[in-house]
UniProtKB/TrEMBL annotation:
<feature type="signal peptide">
    <location>
        <begin position="1"/>
        <end position="18"/>
    </location>
</feature>
<dbReference type="InterPro" id="IPR005197">
    <property type="entry name" value="Glyco_hydro_71"/>
</dbReference>
<dbReference type="Pfam" id="PF03659">
    <property type="entry name" value="Glyco_hydro_71"/>
</dbReference>
<keyword id="KW-0732">Signal</keyword>
<protein>
    <submittedName>
        <fullName>Uncharacterized protein</fullName>
    </submittedName>
</protein>
<dbReference type="GO" id="GO:0051118">
    <property type="term" value="F:glucan endo-1,3-alpha-glucosidase activity"/>
</dbReference>
Amino acid sequence: MVFLFLVYVMLMLNAAAAATPKYVFAHYITGNAAHITQDQLESDMKIAKHAFIDGFALNIAQQDQNTDFVLQKAYAAAEKVGDFSLFLSFDYLSGGPWPVDRVVDTINRYKPHPAQFYYNKKPLVSTFEGVGNTNDWTEIRNKTDCFAMPDWTSLGPESFTNVRDKVDGFFSWDAWPFGTENKSTEGDEAWANATGGKPYMMPVSPWFYTNLPQWNKNWLWKGAHLWTQRWEDIYYFQPDLVQIISWNDYGESHYIGPVHEDGIPQGASRYVQDNPHDAWRALLPYFIASYKTANRSRIRVVRDTLVFWYRPNPNDSGSDGGTTGNSPQHGQPAMDPRLLAEDKIYIAVLVKEPSFILAQIGDGPIVSLEAQHSGINSFEVPFDGQLGNTTFAIVRDDKEVAYATGPPITKECVDGTINWNAVVGSS
Ligand SMILES: *[C@@H]1O[C@H](CO)[C@@H](O)[C@H](O)[C@H]1NC(C)=O
Ligand SMILES: *[C@@H]1O[C@H](CO)[C@@H](O)[C@H](O)[C@H]1NC(C)=O
Ligand SMILES: *[C@@H]1O[C@H](CO)[C@@H](O)[C@H](O)[C@H]1NC(C)=O
Ligand SMILES: *[C@@H]1O[C@H](CO)[C@@H](O)[C@H](O)[C@H]1NC(C)=O
Ligand SMILES: *[C@@H]1O[C@H](CO)[C@@H](O)[C@H](O)[C@H]1NC(C)=O
Ligand SMILES: *[C@@H]1O[C@H](CO)[C@@H](O)[C@H](O)[C@H]1NC(C)=O
């Protein structure tokens, strides 16, 4: 394990510890990259690597004419960047199931590439769903010798046990909470149990809001605590691999990569364009180093960092756009989205020592919070009807050690519709 980019955290590596390597990938929608250049791909990959991400899981849909074009550029870019790996994730819902021969051809075409990710000496391959095609994998594995870790989440853990001998591991897509609940690791435990000792890839996602009428999608799930809480869970749960959902799925608002405007799906610009999420990556070196060392005492925080996120529009500032809390399409009861996406600022700080955290909305009163221990501390500050730009500081020994400002909380909604996506910023 070589961590060259010790900007935010420093690892004190113990030479004696040589456990099974763990990996963190980010889900990359090639369908949103039809116009991307190899330079842009290299830039995105360097940024991901800088955040300690090991590579991308490349989501590919069988009807997408651009797939090979994007894959060729991606594999070439990853090779050039170096020490950054890729694997294929066959999407069985977008455009329908993949025919077996095309899956076999695509795996075999890319597996000799230097940037292909190998796990247990085999090229790792994953999916998005595909529960009607579980029988295909006997032939696919025979003809490619791949390491198959499908996401067949809609099967449920119990039914998965009936087909697990057809694959080599499992990836769960169950990354968001139901209703007002906080996400627990119960689902991860059930899936990890159901693999019968085969590797488990655990999902982590910072948010979920989609409003794409052309695909009949318009719902949100509670996301407020996910980014800090799920990484905490990952630290204790210690899955074999982790996949971040996502790098560039703009339409579902869970991207942590840079926004490339020509990759935004039709209709999503309204809620994506002014909503950068880059700052969510600022905490990743710490989160990933925590997961990989399984021992935070070995990590030294070398820079105080503050990250904040919030929705830009209060809940009474416009139409809710018909967005439901929960997904009725998936059989969940519809709820008022305001109950799941609350009018609050969420703050996570990574501090070297106990510190005070200051937060202010517009010209309102300054709220003082206490980060009681070194490492990660999380806070919530209700809007309380205040509007305006936001400012934040970390203060220690009467000195300001970090400072950040955020875009305004405003009742002026784009198109009169509340933006349920987050804006994210950092010091
Ligand atoms: C594929 O099946 C054939 C016939 O059973 C067998 O000889 C071969 O070893 C298998 N290949 C792999 C990679 O499993
Ligand atoms: C969810 O987690 C947050 C942060 O840990 C906590 O403040 C809140 O009370 C929890 N909510 C529920 C319903 O357990
Ligand atoms: C997973 O298996 C362990 C050990 O058998 C058991 O204690 C636990 O209840 C299981 N968890 C779930 C969610 O099935
Ligand atoms: C964690 O790391 C610290 C510092 O290197 C070490 O003293 C401690 O024994 C480690 N704890 C475990 C459980 O390995
Ligand atoms: C909308 O926000 C206000 C102010 O924060 C809050 O009092 C109210 O409960 C919220 N509405 C819902 C439905 O949660
Ligand atoms: C909010 O910040 C923007 C950008 O820095 C600035 O142009 C604007 O004047 C600020 N608004 C207020 C009310 O301070």
